[in-house]
Amino acid sequence: MPADGPDGDPGAGHGYPGELKATLIGEDQLQAKIVELAAAVAADHELDSPPLLICVLKGAVTFTTDFARAMPIPSELEFMAVSSYGSATSSSGVVRILKDLDRDITGRRVVIVEDIIDSGLTLSWLQKNLATRSPAAIDVVALLRKPEALKVDVDVRYVGFDIPTEFVVGYGLDYNERYRDLPFVGLLGAHMYS
Ligand SMILES: O=P(O)(O)OC[C@H]1O[C@H](OP(=O)(O)OP(=O)(O)O)[C@H](O)[C@@H]1O
Ligand code: HPA
Ligand SMILES: [Mg+2]
């Protein structure tokens, strides 16, 4: 993965000068991977009814919209908002539903679309929660995963990038609600969080 040198300032052109220490995954690399993931998921669903994508707000919103548009088959879209991080850089482990699905998923093939699997606590909770609603199948597509940070075993069929255990921002991912608007994934400077 390309990283900016000590002189590069990836946030400068986006209104965040001096706040990011490097680009971890650039825009082109993200978009190429999303096309691959979308093709893989579509191939496994081709003979079925359209998969119901469940976008996990807020972090996954950018990934979900690019992913759905990269899929060569139709999909339907639902949103669920959960939060376990608040303003911290590690999960509290307590997942709260801030917004639930708008429809019944009984008998549907659902695909949870996540921006990142870090401790795995959010996804593990979500998989169990959705399983109680009797869907036909639950798949997961996650753009990022931190393999060394996992605290629970989670079954994830499609993963974009395995990344180091560092706090990342951009492309939907925030710190204190900032940086979601960056078009790439970057490493936040250590001086920006406590
Ligand atoms: O594997 P975990 O350690 O549980 O972390 C992953 C979750 O944390 C983030 O959500 P967050 O709770 O920050 O809410 P947000 O998406 O609104 O930023 C991220 O979007 C994932 O949903
Ligand atoms: O590294 C991260 N960055 C932003 N949000 C997150 N939620 C879990 N891990 C992260
Ligand atoms: Mg967050």
Would you spell out the secondary-structure blueprint of this structure?
Layout: E1 20-25, H1 27-45, E2 52-57, H2 61-70, E3 76-83, E4 96-99, E5 109-117, H3 121-131, E6 137-145, E7 158-162, E8 168-169, E9 185-188
Parallel strand pairs: 2-3, 2-5, 5-6, 6-7
Antiparallel strand pairs: 1-9, 3-4, 8-9
Helix pairs in contact: 1-2
Bound molecules: 1-O-pyrophosphono-5-O-phosphono-alpha-D-ribofuranose, hypoxanthine and magnesium ion (MG).
Magnesium ion binds at residues 59, 85, 174.
Ranges where pLDDT stays below 50 over 5 or more residues in a row are: none
CATH architecture: 3-Layer(aba) Sandwich
CATH level 1 name: Alpha Beta
Number of strands: 9
Description:
Residues 29-175 form the Phosphoribosyltransferase domain. Belongs to the purine/pyrimidine phosphoribosyltransferase family. This protein has 194 residues and is α/β, with parallel strands linked by helices. It is built from three helices and nine strands; from the N terminus they run E-H-E-H-E-E-E-H-E-E-E-E. It has helices at 27-45, 61-70, 121-131; strands spanning 20-25, 52-57, 76-83, 96-99, 109-117, 137-145, 158-162, 168-169, 185-188. The protein has a six-stranded mixed β-sheet, with helices on both faces. It is globular and about 50 Å long. It starts with 19 loop residues before the first strand and ends in a 6-residue tail after the last strand. The mean pLDDT is 92. Bound molecules: 1-O-pyrophosphono-5-O-phosphono-alpha-D-ribofuranose (PRP), hypoxanthine and magnesium ion (MG). Hypoxanthine binds at residues 85, 116, 118, 167-169, 173-174. 1-O-pyrophosphono-5-O-phosphono-alpha-D-ribofuranose is lined by residues 56-59, 83-85, 91, 114-123, 174.
